[in-house]
Every structure is written in structure tokens, then in C-alpha cells.
TrEMBL record:
GO molecular function per UniProt: FMN binding; isopentenyl-diphosphate delta-isomerase activity; magnesium ion binding; NADPH binding; oxidoreductase activity
Superkingdom as given in the UniProt entry: Archaea
Family to which the UniProt record says this protein belongs: Belongs to the IPP isomerase type 2 family.
Magnesium among keywords: yes
Gene that produces this protein: fni
UniProt-listed GO biological process terms: isoprenoid biosynthetic process
Entries under InterPro entries matching the protein: Aldolase_TIM, FMN-dep_DH, IPdP_isomerase
Chain ranges of the FMN-dependent dehydrogenase domain: 172-331
Obligatory cofactor(s): FMN; NADPH; Mg(2+)
Keyword Hydrolase: no
Name under which the protein is recorded: Isopentenyl-diphosphate delta-isomerase
UniProt KW keywords: Cytoplasm, Flavoprotein, FMN, Isomerase, Isoprene biosynthesis, Magnesium, Metal-binding, NADP
Residues involved in Mg(2+) binding: 157
Organism of derivation: Methanothrix harundinacea (strain 6Ac) (Methanosaeta harundinacea)
Length: 362
């Protein structure tokens, strides 16, 4: 099966089937409500800088697509909306354009539609090993990218028979690529990144990590549906078994931020409140993919509507935590309960020290 055809299958399944599920770890995190914020909502400044450019609020649409003629419109709608609202955007894996230069324009159209926002390129770690570090510059030039994400999706690869599970050498390839013209973002795709891997990535020269943790789109789940469709019962069982495998997103944010990475919090970030929780947990940016897929099949104004809903909820969460700007939100007190708290504690983090203690010790 061609890369481009597989990508269309992924989009169809993500649109038509329930690909989330499991549990939602952001429900275990709550920002402490302030009844007397003592600021006016209108004076809240939610702007930030990312990759040297200003964003209206700390958010990005993470990489989904490109590579098949039918995906160009989705990318253009996402790009027009991201440009209008002032957020960053990633493209999907550019592998298909390396295999067939005719589909390059399904990616380059993004930069034409969004001239001034941060655009992030995308390639899988296994392809990076095969192509060599020079490929990063080529991918960046294709879309005038501000950074290129190297995606780590070994869970998804493991549950499909044609999966590429040659993980050896990926870290060396990332290290070699991190000396290039544009920054590398290490990115999972729904199973999260732990502190051990974050420390190794930082040591290899990566500064930005998109955790893409467990709690949102399950790529193991997507592959389970694909396996069912082609009558491959064994792979379908595998896909369902590993549906909720991985590091829950809020945990992954704490793990990677504690290692010193600049963190993008994604994987189940389903509202501006989840973005605000992410910033308080230590992330620089929140990000999401799936919630923008259906609007992008409809039109750019539908994507703008979805982004504005995130922005409004984010600014409201800032107001209700008395956070006039992002540095105030970064130190806003929060609580962590339930399974997420247990995981953090088992991993050696004191969730109390993460919240009020932190404020008292300032
Ligand atoms: C993705 N994602 C993805 N990631 C990546 O690095 N390269 C890619 O080509 C794709 N393709 C892709 C297609 C579609 C249809 C979706 C929904 C997602 C993964 C995405 O960027 C993100 O990491 C995960 O989906 C988790 O975030 P959400 O969807 O839970 O917000």
C-alpha cells in the first residue's frame, strides 16, 4: 500500500470512528479557582513567542496531513485559520513528498496560506535514519519551515504487520540532525515521552519536545480499525490491547519539563482549559490535532471557529486563575488527583510540591 493511500485511510477512520477513549487524564488536573481575580478580563495578555514569532495564545495545530492531492484542501484550511487567529501549525509526515515530488504542493500550500506563523515540518524517525540528516533541510525548504518535527510512533508501527520497527539508530540520527539549519522538535504521536527519553533527547541537542501523550487520539486504535477492515484479526487484537498504552499527557508534560525541555503539551488537549492546565504544569504551548480535522474538511472559517473556542476558554481560565499574563499562569496553583497523581508520585514527583508549595516557595 502506498504511503499516500494509507494516509487517506487514517483520515477516513479518524473522521468516522471513535479513535479516542481510554481515560482522560486532564480530568485529574484542576486549576484553583480565584473568586477575586483583581484583574479585568480585558487586560489579560495571552500572547507568547514561539520559534521567534508571536502567537495570540500559546497553541498549535499539530501535524496531520499532506501527501495526497485530496489532503491539500485540509492543509490550506488549517493554515488559513492558524494565520488568522495567530497560532502555530504543523504539517503531517512529508515522507510522501520525498517518494513523489508531485505531491510537494500539498505541503507547500500551507506556507502560501500562512506566511507569518510558525510552520513545523514532519518526518518519522525511521525515515530520518534512512535518508540521513540532510533531509531535514530539504523538508524545511519545501514549506519554509521554522522547525521540523521528528515523530516517534513505534507503538503504531508495532501493531501493524507492515510496521517499521527498526528503532536502532534513531537517537544518533536525531543528534546529527539537531546541528542543522532549523530546530528539531522530538514528537510522539499519542503515547507520550518520559523523563528518561527527554534527558537523552536534550543531551542529543533537541530543545523542544511535543509530548503527544496518552489521552487523545490512539494510533493503536486507528490501526485496530484498519486491521479489522482488512480482516486481520490478530493485528486488530493487538491494536485494541495497546489502545491506552503510554505516558498520560499531563504526566509527560511534568516529566519532560522537569528534564529541562521546552514542552508542547498535546494528546487529548480538548479545550482552552486543558491548554491552561498544561501551561501551569510546565508546558510552553498546548497543541491538538483531531479536534481540527473535521472543521478542516468543511472550511477555514470552521477551523477559525474551533480555534476561537480554544482561545476564549484559555483566556477565561487565565482570568479565573488571576493570571494577567503567561508567567502568572505558569505559577498558578493547581491540584492533581486520582490516577494521574498516583502515576506522578510513583514516578517520584510530589504533586503537592508541584502546586501550592511552589507558590509559597517563590
Ligand atoms: C496525526 N498525527 C500525526 N503526527 C505526526 O507526527 N505525523 C503525522 O503524519 C500525523 N498524522 C496524523 C493524522 C491525523 C488524521 C491525526 C488525527 C493525527 C498525530 C497528531 O499530530 C497528534 O500527535 C496526535 O493525534 C495526538 O493529538 P490529539 O489528536 O489527541 O489532539
Amino acid at each position: 500500500m502506498t504511503t499516500a493511500k494509507r494516509k487517506l485511510d487514517h483520515i477516513r477512520i479518524c473522521l468516522d470512528r471513535g479513535v479516542e477513549g481510554g481515560w482522560q487524564p486532564f480530568e485529574d488536573v484542576a486549576l484553583v479557582h480565584r473568586a477575586l481575580p483583581e484583574i479585568d478580563a480585558a487586560e489579560i495578555d495571552s500572547r507568547c513567542r514561539f520559534l521567534g514569532k508571536e502567537l495570540a495564545f500559546p497553541f498549535m495545530i499539530t501535524g496531520m496531513t499532506g501527501g495526497h492531492p485530496e489532503t491539500k484542501e485540509i492543509n490550506v484550511n488549517l493554515a488559513l485559520a492558524a494565520q488568522e487567529v495567530g497560532v502555530a501549525m504543523g504539517v503531517g509526515s512529508q515522507r510522501a513528498a520525498l517518494e513523489n515530488s508531485e505531491v510537494e504542493e500539498t505541503f507547500s500550500a500551507v506556507r502560501d496560506a500562512a506566511p507569518t506563523i510558525p510552520i513545523i515540518g514532519n518526518i518519522g524517525a525511521v525515515q530520518l535514519v534512512r535518508e540521513g540528516p540532510e533531509v531535514i533541510d530539504r523538508l524545511a525548504e519545501m514549506i519554509e519551515a521554522d522547525a521540523v518535527a521528528v515523530h516517534l510512533n513505534f507503538l503504531q508501527e508495532s501493531v501493524q504487520p507492515e510496521g517499521e520497527t527498526e528503532a536502532r539508530g534513531a537517537m544518533a540520527a536525531i543528534r546529527a540532525a539537531s546541528d542543522g539549519r532549523v530546530p528539531i522538535i522530538a514528537k510522539e504521536t499519542g503515547a507520550g515521552i518520559c523523563r528518561e527519553d527527554a534527558l537523552a533527547l536534550l543531551e542529543a541537542g533537541v530543545e523542544v519536545i511535543d509530548v503527544a501523550g496518552m489521552g487523545g487520539t490512539s494510533w493503536s486504535g486507528v490501526e485496530a480499525y484498519r486491521a479489522e477492515e482488512r480482516g486481520d484479526g490478530e493485528s486488530a487484537v493487538m491494536g485494541r490491547l495497546f489502545w491506552s498504552w503510554g505516558v498520560p499527557t499531563p504526566v509527560s508534560v511534568v516529566e519532560c519539563a522537569s528534564a529541562g525541555a521546552e514542552v508542547i503539551s498535546s494528546g487529548g488537549v480538548r479545550s482552552g482549559i486543558d491548554v491552561a492546565k498544561s501551561i501551569a504544569l510546565g508546558a510552553r504551548l498546548g497543541g491538538a490535532a483531531l479536534p481540527f480535522l473535521r472543521p478542516a474538511t468543511e472550511g477555514s472559517s470552521e477551523v477559525v471557529g474551533a480555534l476561537r473556542a480554544y482561545e476564549r476558554a484559555f483566556r477565561t481560565a487565565m482570568f479565573l486563575t488571576a493570571s494577567r499574563d503567561l508567567s502568572a499562569l505558569e505559577s498558578a496553583p493547581f491540584i492533581v488527583v486520582g490516577r494521574t497523581r498516583e502515576i506522578l508520585e510513583e514516578r517520584g514527583f510530589d504533586s503537592k510540591k508541584l502546586s501550592i508549595y511552589r507558590e509559597m516557595s517563590r
